[in-house]
Amino acid sequence: MNEVLRAIRERRSIRAFKTDPVEPEKLEAILEAGRWAPSGKNTQPWRFVIVESQEKRQQLGQLVTQMDMIRTAPVTIAVLLDTEAGYDRIKDIQAIGACAQNMLLAAHSLGLGACWIGRVRDEQVERVLGVGEHEELMMLIPIGYPAESPPPKERKPLADLVRRI
Ligand SMILES: Cc1cc2nc3c(=O)[nH]c(=O)nc-3n(C[C@H](O)[C@H](O)[C@H](O)COP(=O)(O)O)c2cc1C
Q1: Angle, nearest 10°, between helix axes 89-109 and 3-10?
Q2: Looking at the whole model, is its pTM more than 0.70?
């Protein structure tokens, strides 16, 4: 198995983090991986807010259901959709998903853990993040060195998922 396929297979959602900081060059590499995701008509509708100050982490921690993750992760990337940059809602959201997955895989490949936290659209959270009028919060991705090593979550067998025509 090559390293891309191995990373896809071995990545896990990590929800507990050590306090060690994430090196700036690793954070940049993760953001670069997001930036290189595909997007419809190459509109690149993603925007990123990096949450690393104690103050913002605490504030978000109080608002988001899975608060411990956001409070304890040394850094969280909030991924926004710039609705003015996009051109088709479904395709824009698909592009944001590709961007997020690229970042999860990049984090894993660098020895870091991360988790995709969806369903965080909330006015208060968006205010803390400084989300603009034509932007929408799509997901939060807390990142840090893993303090857990969860077993793989089961996947449905291919035979149940694939039809050949
Ligand atoms: C769209 C989406 C939303 C998710 N939302 C959450 C979430 O709010 N909280 C959470 O702990 N995990 C969330 N996850 C992570 C999933 O629970 C996880 O990917 C799934 O259980 C498979 O586990 P694995 O990532 O370790 O393979 C989300 C994943 C996706 C793709």
Answers
A1: 100
A2: yes
